[in-house]
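Filed under: proteins

Residues; backbone shape codes:
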Amino acid sequence: MMSAAAFRRLAAACLLVLAGTAAAAAASTDPDWPCVQVRNPQIAATAIWGGPEIPEAAKEWWTEPDVADAVRTIASRRIPIEEAEKIIDGIAKGEGDRTLRLSKLFVGMLERVNVERNRIMAGLGRYARKQRAFADRIEKVGDQIALLKAGKTVEGVTTADLPKLEEEMKWDIRVFDERNQSLTYVCESPGLLEQRAFELARLIAERM
């Protein structure tokens, strides 16, 4: 069975974990948003576009097959910016109204990036709910252990369950910490997509 000193260290670690969760939640009015970064529902065109006014016809960007193909390619995070720039050059040099074609490319790119960004943010919401459930479970088990060690009765468990409860609590804290570390990286993804959209918008506008 865990010693009293070891249990106090574990309890302290638990409190730090739960405090971190509370701090992240306090940074946002949305309990399902686990990141310290401000949650923006989508990337607005006005926030990243520095080119001429976008014509209404550009909204139907999918009507030109080569533009539609280019949209799907450059919006992908797997495609390096250098390669995307060559594709943008190809659209700029294609037949037809250059400004309209590039406007369609921008509109389509932004739509695709926002779809991917929304998918990631929805995943972060699910992640936050799971972490909150984990934190609640850690807190519950910690309370049970403390009460049992104080010689009090706890419904559903006895002192014979202490080793199992202590092991469960250690494991849950470990998993929770590992997930929190991964979360730091995942939380950067929406911002990285915004940076990519801004860079692509700049390259498109420069060719008009």
Notes: The chain is about 70% helix and 0% strand. The helical segments are 4-26, 45-48, 65-74, 81-92, 98-149, 162-186, 189-206. The radius of gyration is 25 Å. Residues 4-206 form one domain.
